[in-house]
Amino acid sequence: MKKICTVLIMLFTCAACGTIGGAISGAGTDMQKAGDWLKKK
What CA–CA distance (Å, rounded) separates 26 from 24? Predict the structure, then answer.
């Protein structure tokens, strides 16, 4: 059951971004922004 929930969450996340590539790109952008913010602190 836990695996099914995990797969569904991943599918909804990818669907919201349009593609798997879009999801990965979005996560990369968020990580870059977080890194820049930490450098400023």
Answer: 5
Q: Tell me the H-state helices in 1-41.
A: 2-17, 20-40
Collapsed DSSP state (helix, strand, coil) of residue 4: helix
pLDDT digits (tens, 9 = 90+) for 1-41: 788 888 877 777 666 556 666 666 667 777 788 888 888 77
Distances (CA, A) of 37 to 3, 7, 29, 34: 34, 31, 12, 5
Contacts of 16 (CB under 8 A, 6+ apart): 23
Do 23 and 13 contact (CB within 8 A), yes or no?
yes
Token pair 């999801």 is at which residue? 23
